[in-house]
Amino acid sequence: MSTRGAQDVRRRRARSGAPKPSSGGFSLVEVLVALVVLTAGALTVAASMVVATSANTHAGELSRASALASQKLEEIKAMPADEVDDEAAIRVNARGVPTSGGAYVREVDVVDESEGAPENTKRVTVTVEFSSGAMGQDEATMFTILYVNPG
Predict the structure, then answer these.
(1) Within 13 Å, how many C-alpha atoms sit on residue 56's CB side?
(2) Which of 35, 88, 139, 150 suits a disulfide with 129, CB 3.0-4.6 Å?
(3) What is the pTM of this model?
(4) Which domain holds residue 70?
(5) Taking 90 as the threshold, does the pLDDT of residue 77 lie above it?
(6) Ramachandran region of residue 115, left (φ > 0), alpha (ψ -120 to 50) or beta?
């Protein structure tokens, strides 16, 4: 298009009231909408990170509680079966050492000849309870059946 043709187009637009072509920038409304969308996305990501961190912490605590229950069962299996008896709930630390400030509560329940089990057996159940912040109270429970030699 020639220079003269471009001038004619500009004159016709000016007479018809048509808007001038934009200079390539964004309007204030467009910027505000973009900021709202960006903020909503950032808040969603932040909230999901909080939930993921809480779930990860809970999973770690549950894993430690399961290890403590397993550790106690192994100690019990090493004992003569006729000496195995209930243990009241006690506080233990993450290594299973009894302590007043322990984060875990461990309890051992022994039942002679539990229902449906063969004679001369004991069912030993170890329960380890813990608190996991926002996820609340939870527990890990493991059991084994011991044979008691009658003779």
Answers:
(1) 6
(2) 139
(3) 0.70
(4) 26-147
(5) yes
(6) beta
Distance of CA 138 to the CA centre of its chain: 12
- In angstroms, rounded to a whole number, what is the distance separating the alpha carbons of residues 84 and 72? 12
- C-alpha 69/C-alpha 125 separation (Å) is 9
As given in the structure block, the two tokens for residue 139 are 């527990």
| Domain assignment of residue 125, yes or no | yes
Is residue 115 assigned to a domain?
yes
List the beta strands (DSSP E) in the chain: 87-92, 104-112, 121-131, 137-147
Residue the block writes with tokens 């993450």 = 94
Q: How many domains does the chain have?
A: 1
Output DSSP code: residue 98.
B
Q: Is residue 10 part of a domain?
A: no
Cβ contact 137:70 at 8 Å? no
Dihedral sign of CA atoms 80, 85, 88, 89 in order: positive
Could you report the per-residue pLDDT of 85-134, keeping only the tens digit for each?
999 999 999 999 999 989 999 999 999 876 777 788 899 999 999 997 77
